[in-house]
Amino acid sequence: MVLNAVEGAESEIWLALGVLLGGFFLIPRHLKSAQRQKMHSSASKKKAYTVYSKAEVSLHNNRAECWIIIKDKVYDVTSYVEEHPGGDAILTHAGDDSTEGFYGPQHATRVFDMIDDFYIGDLEQ
């Protein structure tokens, strides 16, 4: 009888520990996601986007100022040039349309989520 009580208490302790650890891993991820979404939405509300001509984008064609066009949207990827896993390949179309290269097979799917962080405006039609 005493043994069953000890086993029962031990089971309850493991159950409580499992719930606490589960909450520890699940809740912070949820909060981080919500915070990230809130920051992104508030940043997008504050920032006014501009319409750029192709001539203006073409002036930003080097490592120090690297703008690219993807599907008629303009991105300032200057801060990413040094981190680019493909090295200087990102500079191939600096100041120009990079749509074809961006959607090439070399890019992992996460690049499609990352690019929004570099958006600065639309290409003039």
TrEMBL record:
Transmembrane annotation, as ranges: 13-31
Family: Belongs to the cytochrome b5 family.
Entries under PROSITE patterns matching the protein: CYTOCHROME_B5_1, CYTOCHROME_B5_2
Presence of keyword Iron: yes
Domain Cytochrome b5 heme-binding: 49-124
Protein name listed in UniProt: Cytochrome b5 heme-binding domain-containing protein
Database matches in SMART domains: Cyt-b5
SUPFAM superfamilies, per the entry: Cytochrome b5-like heme/steroid binding domain
Keywords: Heme, Iron, Membrane, Metal-binding, Transmembrane, Transmembrane helix
Annotated source species: Hevea brasiliensis (Para rubber tree)
